[in-house]
Every structure is written in structure tokens, then in C-alpha cells.
Amino acid sequence: MTTTPARPEDQPPAQVPALPATVLGYPRIGPNREIKKALEAHWRGGDVDALQEAIRAHRSRTLGHLAGLGLEADSAIPADGAVIDQVLDASMLLGLVPRRFREAGFSAASPDSGEGLALVSALARGTSTVEPLELTKWFDTNYHYYVPEIEPDVAFSPQPDAVAERYRTFRDLAAETAGGSLPRPTLLGPVSFLLLAKAVGAESQAPDGTAGDGGTVPQASRFDRLDELVTAYSTLLRALHDAGAAWVQLEEPALASDGWDLPREQIVTGLRTAYTAFAGLTERPALFVPVSYGTAGDDALAALGAAGVEAVGLDLERGVLPPEQALEPLTGRTVAAGVVGGLNVWRTDVARAAGLLDQLRTRHEGPLTVSSSTSLLHVPHDAAREAQLDPQVAGWLAFADQKVGEVLALTGHLSEGPDALEGLRADDASRRRLREQHPQVRVEAVRRRLDEVLPQDRRRAAAEHRRAAQQAALDLPPLPTTTIGSFPQTAEIRRVRAAHRRGALDQQGYEQAIRGQIADCIRRQEDLGLDVLVHGEAERNDMVQYFAENLEGFITTAHGWVQSYGSRCLRPPILFGDVHRPAPITVEWTRYAASLTRRPVKGMLTGPVTILAWSFVRDDQPLAATADQIALALRDEVEDLQAAGTRIIQVDEPALRELLPLQIAQRPEYLRWSVESFRLATSAAKPDTQLHTHLCYSEFETVIDAIDALDADVTTLEASRSGFEVVTALAEHGFSRGIGPGVWDIHSPRVPSVDELIERLRLAAEVLDPQIVWSNPDCGLKTRGWEETEASLRHLVNATAVVRAELARVPAGV
Asked: Bridge partners of 691?
């Protein structure tokens, strides 16, 4: 890696406008999920013009709304042009189109054009012939991003006209709705882009220099492309300057983690290389580089200061306040203090935030402003819309709009002094006292039960004993076929739930309708020939929200939608108190499903870590204690399912990897308590009860020891979208219990062929012990339609029959 020289005529801008108080981003789905609905209408065959108009209207509304909330200064409003995902958007603007899409007729295009939106959809969802980009977790959040693919023979092809035209559109819309204030374009920064990308290519080499497998190449080779990428970004920066942008936000969240496959020194050197080149450009906007999701690191701050960027953003929600010597390289430059949390829905602790600002002011010699710690895409739009909530609990909450207000109020503390916050401090302190006194925040019976948990309450019988008992009880064939849990949530199911919710359908009518859906789901699975069935979850709106609605200690929202990936949105519950189960939740639905068939039916539960990860969790006690409270509630459900005759119980933990700390030193403690919590929830399962778990869309290789330690009898994993890489990792680990690496990607509408499913099942049976392999999709089928679901499952059953026959012809021991 070499330093990209600045052009001789390039010099830093002579005059830099001030960076005002700001937020790093705002929810992109729309307060009523307008973008989600427009995308899905387009994917169903709607006109692209309607989608483009919806995008334009949403951008206009957001600009005007944020200005109305008080972000009126030039460059205070972030202009996030991504429709689906900020990483995918960066790939588009850099013209990075994988070869398989080029061969299918796609080419680099503006992401806002009709051709570009078609490419965005193809990259995210795949086509009938081309598999989509891999989808994985965004740091330790429940947001997912689309993984860029960097191939050695596919060049970056930056789109300066696209980025300029987009900014001009934002600028013109701001003139109409935001008083003419200049918005601030946002882009993922080059170092984070490379670290989040995946290196693939036909001419790969293994880490030892030998020939690779023709697919994945060493991830470190991504940084071999840094100079080329810097040139591409420089082209985009000049285009933004020419379009009139005063500032640009280049986000570098990857600096908050030390868990990458490259030495930190190499990453920081690349950071200095890139930003020195950018700062040396004459025709560019001022550079604002926020580092979210944790501490930037003294070395990164030194590199950014030495490079000459005009502003750096610090996450002071997750990260620590840098010492004075770490801030010295930023002398004279703006520091944006991220004291308003972007990952939670709790009101900002005003006293704490003001104290951090005061400390920062004494340590930093230069301009200081206030910002959110991260983009606000992780929180809902507006808490004021939640009129149905307990007023006292609602008073503790701050969604995106309220967080904008907190940023501006804390800015007053910087400009006017402590008196500016006097009323807000008193109000905040009063609300916090009321929160402590709420009867559901501390329930002594829950705490006594947790105190009485013993080590043996987290242990099951030996795996070998369980395996023999379960084989005798279940008598399943080789490569048992099953699904992950949910089946299509049809319009009829949603209509029934909505009618019941608003009182138009009584409880008896609702239960009758749901039983009809369950009976239909069981019949379809029997007709397809699946071995282990599920009831389909027709009664569940969401795998976490459903449990939150049936457990004490949670509240749920009416409008609190948050983007998870693509057009997929969820309403995370708010966990504010001690958790306990007032009554059985799933038992009667599972019992009814089992009564309709002689085949085993899985009981379906969501695990404690996933319920934590996909909720907004109380911030007044350790996560481990809250996880164990949830685990005890689930333990009761496991016992009741067993008593009702359920012999297979699945406790999903798709978010186990999601909460993994970004700093390696903090990971062992997290993995300890998360595994122990799962085992507390599940150790009530008897030896002849087969316990399943499911994990999806994560880099499993980093937590494979923890997955093994869960001690589930069968673990199903996402595998197809990540190239089946996890199968080799499982074999190398010596994984010995049941394992079902998902053989098709359910997040794409394409129906996999029988041949590709056979190929993947063969690979799993060859690399792993075929006696432990299960045949299943990657994830639940909730988001798919019945036509594609039944076609895919039919192919799965047929492919499994072929591989079973092949295995039967192989002599024992061979």
C-alpha cells in the first residue's frame, strides 16, 4: 500500500464554514413506512416512476421536518441518499458491480435512476438466475447491510454525475422546504468500506500463498485496492464540491472495532493515507469524519488530525472520552460530541451529557459542537405519536425527533452556559425518580427467583445420552427435513390479526381463524413430505414482539418502526421493567398443531439474547441480569411445552453474534453470560426432548465455540448467502451434534433449483458427519409467498431424497 499523492495544484480549502449542531442520520423508511411500501409495490411490478416520486417526496419531507425541528443552519441536516442501505449505496456510487451481475446485463448506474434502482434491487434480492449480495449484521446492531464484493479484475467506476445530481436535488428540495439551508451529504468512508467488504475472485490465493478455491480470497487483499478506492472517492468529492456542498460526512464506524482481519497499524496507516489525499484536494467540501458504535482510538484521532480533516465526531454513548493528549492532534479542528444516544429510546441523561461536554471543552482546543452518537436510523421517528402508552413510561422515551431536540438543547449549554439547561435538568431528574419508583421496574419475586438459580440449573444431561433417547423417541431418517419456524404471513393472516386488534373480531372468532391457518400450514407441510413440521406462527406479528406482548416488563409501540434490512421493518419492544411470564404463551397453538399430524411438530420460542438484541432494553441494570430474567420466563414455557407432549422445542438465537462486543477484550465475558442465559432457559428440556436453536446472518466463525457451548441438540444456521463457508469452520471445530446449514436463501425471491440444493447437501454431508446433517432453509419463511415457498420446499425434499439415496449406497465407514 502506497500513499496516493495529491495533485500539485491541490491545496486545502482556504475557508472552512462552521459545522453546526447536527445528527448523523435520520430514519430513511418514512414515519408511515412510505419507502418500504413504495419499494415493495415496485417489486410487485409497479412503475419505477412511482418509486422515484416516493423517494423524492420522502427526501423533501425529511429536509423540511428536520429544519422545522431546529436544524436550520447550513450543513446541519444530513442528506442520506441511500434507499435501502448505506453500504449498498456506496457500492453503487463507486460503480462496484460484481461480475455475475455484469454478465446478467447490469452495469454501473446512478442509484437514483430507473436502471440504478433495478440494479439496487438485483444486488439486494437477486434475480431468477443471479444470487444477491451477502447480507450480514451492521456492527452490534439489528441493522443488516449488503456486503460489497471486491473482485481483482473488476475496477471501481465512480459515478460523479450521479452524486452531483443527487446533491443538487437535495439542495433544491431544501430550498423549497428547509428555508434554503444547505444539506450535508453522507457517505460511508473508504476505510470502513474496505473493512466491511468481502474479497472474492477467480484467481484467489490461500493465506499461505497456495492456490485458493476459486472463490474467496484473503480478506487482507482488500487493502491492496486502497489507492484505487481513494482515487474514486476523490472523484466523488470533487463532484460534490462542484454541486455546492460545503461539508461532506465520511463515516468511519469500523475504527471503533479491533476485531478485523488486518493489523490495527495497517488500518490506521490506510486511514492516514486516504484522508491526507482527500484533505489535499482543492475542490472538495470540508471533511467531517464521525466514528460511531464505540471509541475511535487515540491512533485514529492522531491519523485524522495529521491528515487535516476539518471535523471529527466522537461517540460518547458507547465510547469513552479521549484524554487530552489524544485530542491534541485535533487542535483547531471541530469536534462533534455524540452525547445523545442513537441506539436507544431513553431520554438523554442531561446531567451526564453536560458533564461530558464540560470535560471535553477543557481538553480540546478548538470548536466544539453537539451531535447524536450514531445515525438515528436505529430508532423510531417520533415518541409523541405513541398516545396509547402508559404516560409515565412514555415520559422516559426519546425517539429520533426528540433526540434532535436534545442535541439542540445541549448546544445551548455550550453557547449559554449551565443556566440554559436548568429547567431541563430538573425535569429530567424528576422523570428519573419516577422511573425508579414504577412498580414494574423492580419486582421482588423476580429478583428472589434469580438469586436462587444454581449452576445445575444451566446444565443438561450428556449429549450422547440425549442423542440415543431422542433417536428412540423420534426415529427420524437421515438428513431430516424441516423449516426454521415461520411460514408466509399472508394478507388474510394480517387481516385477521388487525380485525382482532381493533375489536372487529372477538376472541373466539380470532382463535378459530388462526386454527384454520395452522391446519392449512400443517396440511401443506405433510403434502410436501417434510419430516419435522412447525405450526407456522400465524398468530405472531414478530418473533420478539409476540413474546414481549405476553411477558410483563415490556411495552410495545403502535408506530415505532425501525428498518432491519432492505424494506424489512420491525417494531422493537421496549423492555423497561423486571421480566416474568404471567401465563403460557405458545402451548395451546403448538398442542393444536400436533393434534393434526402424526409427525413431530416443533414448539417455537425466541431465545433470551435475541429478545434483548431486538428490543430497546432498560439501561439501569446489567444486560446479563435482564437476560436471565427472560431466560427464567422461557424456562417455564419449555416445561409447559414438554408437559403438553411436545418432543422438539426450538429456541431461536439468531442474534447471538449480533451483540458481540466490538472490542475483542470484552467478548469472553459477553459470550459467557449469553451462553449461560440460553442454557438457563433450555436446561429444563428432558433427555428425550430434542432441543433446537437457530442462528442467521452472522459471521459464525468468530463465535463457533459459543455456538457449541449452547449445547443444543440441533443447530440450524444461515449458510447459503455466505457461500457455505460455515460448513468448513464447523468441520474444523469438530462440531458433533445435529447441524443444519441452510441450503437456500429465503431473503431472495428466487426459487433454488434441485441441482444447487443437491450440491450444497452433498457438500455438507461430505465435510461433516452425514449422521448429524439436517436439510433446511436459511431462515423463517414469513416474508415469502406460498407459491415460491412450496416450490422451494418441494425442491428441498427432492434434493434430500437424492442425497439420502447416495448416502445409503456408501458402505459404512467409507
From this structure: 649
Question: What burial class does residue 406 get, using C-beta atoms within 10 Å of its C-beta: 0-12 exposed, 13-18 middle, 19+ buried?
Answer: buried
* CB-based contact 543:652 (threshold 8 Å): yes
- Rounded distance, CA 609 to CA 678, Å? 7
- The pLDDT value recorded for residue 227 is 95
Q: Is the torsion defined by CA of 406, 412, 418, 422 positive or negative?
A: negative
- Confidence (pLDDT) at 811: 61
Nearest C-alpha neighbor of 83 from the set 121, 133, 109: 121
Query: What pLDDT is stored for residue 209 in this prediction?
Result: 30
pLDDT at 210: 28
Tally of CB atoms within 10 A around 735: 19
H-helix or E-strand containing 334? strand 334-340
Question: Which position has the grid cell 373480531?
Answer: 505
Element containing residue 790 per DSSP (H, E): helix 786-809
Assess whether 747 carries a catalytic annotation.
Answer: yes
Residue with cell 472490542: 663
pLDDT of res. 697: 59
At which residue does the C-alpha cell 483547531 appear? 332
The pTM of this model reads: 0.91
3-class SS at 715?
A: strand
| Partners of residue 211 on adjacent β-strands | 205
Angle 343-748-779 from CA coordinates, rounded to 5°: 65
Task: Please give the sequence-ordered ranges of beta strands (E in DSSP) within 488-601, or none if there are none.
Answer: 552-555, 562-565, 568-570, 574-580
Q: Residue 6 has what pLDDT?
A: 41
pLDDT along the chain (814 residues), means of 10: 39 67 97 96 95 97 97 96 97 96 95 96 92 91 94 93 98 94 97 94 39 45 90 98 97 96 94 98 96 97 97 97 96 97 96 96 96 98 95 94 97 90 91 93 97 96 95 96 94 93 94 96 97 96 94 96 94 97 97 97 97 95 97 98 97 91 95 97 97 81 88 92 80 92 86 94 93 94 92 97 92 52
Residues 6+ apart with CB under 8 A from 60: 173, 176, 177
Query: Taking the CA of residue 781 as centre, how many other CA atoms within 13 Å lie in the half-sphere pointing to its CB?
Result: 28
DSSP 346: B
Integer distance in angstroms from the first to the last C-alpha of the chain? 48
- Amino acid code (one letter) for 518: I
What nine digits make up the cell of 710? Answer: 449452547
Question: Which one-letter amino acid corresponds to residue 611?
Answer: I
User: Could you say which of 144, 500, 535, 747 is catalytic?
Assistant: 747
Q: Shortest CA distance to 187 belongs to which of 259, 278, 261?
A: 278
- The answer to whether the beta carbons of residues 606 and 543 sit under 8 Å apart is yes
Q: Report CA dihedral (296, 302, 307, 312) to the nearest 10 degrees.
A: 40
- Residues 279-315 as b/e (b if ≥16 CB within 10 A, e otherwise) read bbbeebbbbbbbbbbbbbbbbbbbbbbebebbbbbbb
pLDDT given at position 9: 37
Report the phi/psi class of residue 330: left, alpha or beta, with left for phi > 0 and alpha for psi in -120 to 50.
Answer: alpha
- Is the distance from CB of 681 to CB of 631 less than 8 angstroms? yes
Q: How many whole angstroms from its chain centre is CA 296?
A: 21
Beta strands across the sheet bearing 247-251: 78-79, 184-188, 247-251, 286-291, 311-315, 334-340, 368-372
Least Cα distance to 111 among 99, 124, 100 occurs for 124
Position 219 scores a pLDDT of 64
User: What does the alpha-carbon distance between residue 559 and residue 436 come to, in Å, rounded to a whole number?
Assistant: 26
d(C-alpha 496, C-alpha 764), whole Å? 41
Cα dist from 235 to 149, 164, 269, 631, 768, whole Å:
21, 11, 21, 52, 48
Give me the helices (H) in 505-556, please.
507-528, 545-548
- Three cell numbers written together for 289: 469524519
